[in-house]
Write a structure and sequence with these properties.
The chain is 16% helix and 39% strand. By secondary structure, the chain is α+β, with helices and mostly antiparallel strands. The structure holds 2-acetamido-2-deoxy-beta-D-glucopyranose (3 copies). One 2-acetamido-2-deoxy-beta-D-glucopyranose (NAG) binds next to strand 4.
Length: 198
């Protein structure tokens, strides 16, 4: 593994440990966005393309209940105004379902919110942050959504391929836990082939 990647992981964990020390014991509330790491000097062109969703963590996930969740993809296409069209492709009832959300840049490079939020009934706020990425192998994203006055947090592990070295999975798990999530909130969707190349 490239030294650069290892360094990235260690730097990220260092930042997280510093945060964990002063975090409150209550696991549910979302941390202030400022405390969530942000990929520095985010390169939006390099981030484009297809990502496999290899890990999911969040206060809306349950390891047992969601144990049959299948892998899906998220494809990022940049628009001229620097927003992204983000198309998710999932297997649903033997066919491939696609839907597209638009992420608009919000305050920082690598931070976005959802365009046309009024179309998503019940969703009051939706922000995502690219926590870390090396563009050609993996990314970790943080999502915060306010839905019917309740905060939902989600962390995703993206890979350019369907598998990633275990050190990256460990970094993802550590990050999720630094937000107060537990093993029960972390799932690794089942690898599949259907729809993954569409
Ligand atoms: C993104 O989606 C919008 C709305 O569906 C569409 O008009 C636009 O052409 C898309 N952009 C790209 C780069 O495909
Ligand atoms: C999303 O970000 C844009 C640009 O910073 C801002 O104008 C808009 O109010 C934000 N929307 C929400 C729901 O936060
Ligand atoms: C949504 O976000 C905006 C700014 O980002 C904030 O002012 C507002 O209080 C948030 N609303 C909710 C319901 O969290």
């Amino acid at each position: 593994m490239a030294l650069g990647l290892l360094w990235l992981g260690l730097a990220l964990l260092g930042a997280l440990q510093t945060q964990a020390q002063d975090s409150t014991p209550n696991p549910i509330p979302a941390p202030p966005l400022l405390r969530v790491p942000l990929q520095s000097d985010f390169q939006n062109e390099k981030f484009q393309g297809k990502w496999y969703v290899l890990g999911l963590a969040g206060n809306g996930f349950n390891k047992e209940k969601d144990s049959q969740l299948k892998m899906y993809t998220a494809t990022y296409v940049l628009n001229e105004d620097n927003s992204y069209n983000v198309t998710s492709t999932v297997v649903w009832d033997q066919s491939c379902d696609h839907w597209t959300k638009i992420f608009i840049p919000n305050l920082h490079l690598g931070q976005f919110n959802l365009s046309n939020i009024e179309r998503y009934t019940g969703t009051q706020n939706y922000t995502t942050r690219v926590v870390t990425t090396n563009y050609n192998q993996f990314a970790i994203l943080y999502f915060k959504k306010v839905f019917n006055n309740q905060e939902h947090i989600k962390v995703t592990l993206y890979g350019r391929n369907k598998d990633l070295p275990s050190v990256l999975k460990e970094i993802f798990i550590s990050f999720a836990k630094s937000l107060g999530l537990t093993e029960d909130h972390i799932i690794f969707p089942i690898p599949i082939d259907e729809c993954m190349d569409k």
